[in-house]
Amino acid sequence: MTGVSNLLELNQVSLSFRGVKALNALSFSVEKGKICALIGPNGTGKSSLLNVISGIYRADAGDVVLDGTHFEAIKPGLAARLGIGRTFQHNALFRRLTVRENVLAGLSRHGRATFVENVFRFGRDRDERRSFAERADRIIAFLGLEKDRDRVVSTLSYGTQKRVDLARALVSEPKLLLLDEPMAGMNQDEKKAMSRIISELNKSFGTTIVLIEHDVGIVLGLADHVVVLDYGRKVADGTPDEVRNDPDVIAAYLGTVH
Ligand SMILES: Nc1ncnc2c1ncn2[C@@H]1O[C@H](COP(=O)(O)OP(=O)(O)OP(=O)(O)O)[C@@H](O)[C@H]1O
Q1: What CDD domains does the entry give (predicted)?
Q2: In this structure, what DSSP letter does residue 25 have?
C-alpha cells in the first residue's frame, strides 16, 4: 500500500535501449518535502530515470506512483500538469530570449494562453498574464536574477544560465522538482551557492526534489536521502550517513571520498 508520506514511488521500473538495460527493476521512494540524490557512475541510468518520471521515456515494465496515483506511463504534458518540474543536463533555455521570457516559458503548459501569448504579452487572458508575470518576477527575485531579468540568455555566464533554468522549472510551483546535474561544469564556489539555493527552495516552498549530482561531497551535505545506482540497479538507498558507511558503496563507488 502506498504510504501517504511518499510523494514518489518507483516500483520495479525497467527500461532497455536495444538490449541495453538502462534501468533494471528499480524500486525506491521519495518522502514528501525531502531532497533525494541519485548518484552513480556515468551511464548507470540516472537521466533515463528522470526521463521516465517526467514522461519523456516510457518504462518497459513497472510503475510510477505520484502522490498515491499509479501511472504506467506519463506523457510530458500530463507530468507538468501533475506538478512535476525539471531541468536538463544541458539546459533547455531559449538562448535568444531574455531571462524573464524564459521564466515565463515555464508556465506555458499551465495556463489558458499560449506560450507565445505569455512570452510576448498579448492575447486573450489579461488576468492570467498578469498573475504569471508576478509569479515569474517573484521567482526571479528569489533566485537573485533581478539585475539580469531583461538580458538575453546567451549573454549570461554558464552558472547564471543554470539558475535561469532552475527558475524556469520552479515558476510553475512544482510539487516534485527533478534536477539533472544542476551543478555540472561549476567551480566549487558556484556549486556551494547552487547547493544553498536548492536547500533554501526546498525549505521555503516545501518542494520535493530528486537531483542527479556527481560531486559526492556536495550530495552528502545536501540530500536527506541518497540512492546509489550501478548499471541500472540500485546498489544502496538510505541517509547520507548510511550510504557513506555502506561497504558495498565504498567498494564500488565512493572509494576514499570523505
Ligand atoms: N535515447 C537513448 N538511446 C539509446 N540508448 C540510451 C538512450 N538514453 C540512454 N541510453 C543508454 O542508457 C544507459 C543509461 O544512460 P543514462 O544517460 O540514463 O545514464 P546516466 O547515469 O544519466 O549517465 P551520465 O551520468 O553520463 O549522464 C547508457 O548505456 C546509455 O547509453
Answers
A1: ABC_Mj1267_LivG_branched
A2: E
Which atom in ligand 1 lies closest to the alpha carbon of residue 89? 27
As a whole number of angstroms, the distance between CA 42 and CA 169 comes to 24
pLDDT of amino acid 257: 46
Q: Which of 18, 26, 48 to mutate to test the pocket of ligand 1 (most atoms within 8 A of CB)?
A: 48
Cell numbers linked to 220: 552528502
- Within 10 angstroms of residue 71's Cβ, the number of other Cβ atoms is 17
Q: Which of 14, 53, 48, 47 is nearest to 30 (CA)?
A: 53
Q: Which domains does the chain have, with CATH numbers?
A: 1-83+175-258 (3.40.50.300), 93-173 (no CATH)
- Residues within 6 Å of ligand 1 by CB: 17, 20, 22, 40, 42-48
C-alpha cell at 108: 506555458
DSSP code, position 146: G
Give per-residue pLDDT as tens, 155-192: 999 889 999 999 999 998 999 999 999 998 888 998 99
